[in-house]
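I am still getting used to backbone structure tokens and would like to learn alongside you. To get us started, please write out a protein record for me. Start from the sequence, derive the backbone structure tokens from it, and show both lines together. Once you have written the record down, we can walk along the chain together:
***
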Amino acid sequence: MQIITRCAAILMLLLGALRSEGQVIRFGVIADIQYADADTRGTRLYRYSVQKLKTAVADLNKQKLPFLINLGDVVDRNPADFAPVLEALRKFRRPVYNTTGNHDYHGITSNDSLYRLLDMPAEYYAFKKGNWRFIMLNTNEVAAYANVKGTPREQELREMMEKIKERKGRNGAEYNGGISSAQMNWLQGQLEDAQQKGELVLVLSHHPLGCATGLTALNDQEIVALLAKYSSVKALISGHHHAGAFCMVGKLPCIVLEGMVETDENSYGTIALHPDKLVITGSGRMTSRTVQF
């Protein structure tokens, strides 16, 4: 009888593991809301972003998604503009995971106050859903606009800019940022832990790590070199480049989501993570695509 009971228990564990491996994780995505109480400039419809966000949140709520990821640039230029955007984001009924964008730092003198405003648990962080680990990088950590003057990050910024100059890179613009050596060490620890536990990893950031010449993170090459060492990393997802893009960075799929501010339609979507593929279902201007791992 004990043998039968043990076999039944083992069978249940195996079935549970199979269900976990086949589990599909679905969530919403938004990038570059970039609201401002300002007139339209070119294709940037600043004032319309809040209404577009409300429409997106209402639709994503109807889909009963378990969480939403916002990839930064909540506002364009004025800290006072955060209030209506955050009010709209809070209408989403489940957790919202935010990271910052370069525009979010305009007029901000305390980075910590910005992270608190966006309900971020830390400057950079990770969370788990099913067998997936989501790594939320902060590619604004080392940047001219991110209050680095007089801190060790100021020296790291100088070193990054020198490396870009040496390799004749085009991403040394004032609106790009990078991650510090401390964040790089933290990232490596996350990747090691995920690899040992057999987890799949999705890396998210505001600045692209490829696909967008002149708009990538300042130390994109160093970040990608680290990520490429781990087979658990399945895809890179970012914003910042409003036009959107897709390419392979080595063996890693690199997806840049279209910006909400840069359209008279809308731009948001859902992502379904399967063990062997990622499926984006875009609304409005956001591109739908399937990426095989």
Notes: The mean pLDDT is 94. The domain at 24-292 is CATH 3.60.21.10 (Purple Acid Phosphatase; chain A, domain 2).
